Amino acid sequence: MIKKITLILLMVIAYPITSQESKFELDCVNTSRPEFRLNYSIMRHMNPTISTGDSVEIGKAAGTSTAYPETISKLFEIPYRKAEAFYAERKFNEAVTILEPAIKTEKNNPFLLNFYAKSLYAANKRKESFKAYLNLISLIDAEETLNSDGSHNLVIIDTWFLEAYWKISTLYLEAQDYEKSIYYNRKMLDVITLGNTYYNPNMITYNISALSYLAEAYYFLKNKEANHFYVCETLKLDKNNKDVLQFLML
């Protein structure tokens, strides 16, 4: 028979979830954010408010994103704008179709690639979207380098393409590539807050999904400390969120 386990979230609230009979205390007072290991970071397309070498805490702004260029493509500006209109009308397949000639001609135009990948994603063409996002990431993050131990040396964060980092992180999660899902999710979620004041950490709808997906990824990686941190962060924003409790490591 399925019995109840009582989850006590210290300093916040108690949550009942379904499992075997026992009592579990989730300590959200002493959890800490997992380390994001890197040596250097370059923020692209931002107006900095700090100097090179200055330290900034997660969640504190280091600048503001610059605006997109007025012209996305000299050859395909009209199709691009039509694709935007189709997307706004939720005609995602039409947006994909009208962008295909542009993508074939301007393979290295990140704005066309981004909107193409975004439209494919919305049209639920995940495989095609993943390929398009990979092409985009290979362009905007081309300068990234790794250390000999596999940790990140130079991390590129392009503030024009925050959504691309987020979308590819969800696709990696679906593909069960949890390390890469975490990397791109965190580039968008917590590292990017250093460079973009337009990103509001209190935007609950956006944050809850990102935080709960991190909890899920760390669950499958069997990293209990990180898992607990992101479960706690999710519950702080949405105390009634039961989905994230499916991925709580006991």
From TrEMBL:
The protein's name is Tetratricopeptide repeat protein
The UniProt entry, under Gene3D superfamilies, shows: Tetratricopeptide repeat domain
Query: Which SUPFAM superfamilies does the record cross-reference, listed alphabetically?
Result: TPR-like (SSF48452)
Q: Which InterPro entries match?
A: TPR-like_helical_dom_sf (IPR011990)
